[in-house]
Amino acid sequence: MKDECTLRINGQMYSHSILLEKLGYDQEKSITLDQLIIGLGYRLERVAVEYNGNIVKRDVWNHTLVVAGSIIEIVSFVGGG
């Protein structure tokens, strides 16, 4: 599925076009990691992101494009005790 972006969040997978449509973005363009994270309702300071098998540092999220064929894992941190 070369034309699909696979995003896995708690086992849920999305197609590239459906994901962009859901987030209100043009399906012909890519979005950045920070746009994706915010669009999915996560707080930037409470997640870690793996992009195509590599951990991505937070300071490059705003210029790392989510393109078709990508595999992304978003891990949310929760506090407690």
Number of helical elements: 2
Q: In percent, how helical is the residue content?
A: 10-25%
Reading the helices and strands in chain order gives EEHEHEEEE
Strand percentage, roughly?
25-35%
Largest sheet: 5 strands, mixed
Strand order of the largest sheet: 2-1-7-4-5
* Total count of strands: 7
* Low-confidence blocks of residues: none
Globular, elongated, flat, extended or rod-shaped: what is the shape? globular
Query: What structural class is derived from the secondary structure elements?
Result: alpha+beta
For the residues shown, what is the average pLDDT? 82
Q: What's the end-to-end separation, in Å?
A: 42 Å
CA radius of gyration is 12 Å
Would you summarize the structure shown here?
The chain is an alpha+beta fold and 81 residues long.
Which descriptors apply to this entry?
five-stranded mixed beta sheet; two-stranded antiparallel sheet
What would you note in describing this structure?
With 81 residues, the protein is of the alpha+beta class. Helices cover 19% and strands 31% of the residues. The chain contains two helices and seven strands; from the N terminus they run E-E-H-E-H-E-E-E-E. Strands 2-1-7-4-5 form a five-stranded mixed β-sheet. The mean pLDDT is 82.
